[in-house]
Amino acid sequence: MMNTMEFNGYKAVIQYDPEIEMFRGEFL
Length: 28
Fold this sequence. Notes:
The chain is 0% helix and 68% strand. By secondary structure, the protein is mostly beta strands. The chain has one domain. Strand 1 and strand 2 (10-17) form a beta hairpin. The radius of gyration is 9 Å and the shape is elongated.
């Protein structure tokens, strides 16, 4: 599952990391 969010005009892909039980974001 891939989620795209926009932070201050920057697009980022948010994905859930089950190992650390947190969401990780990657800027495009």
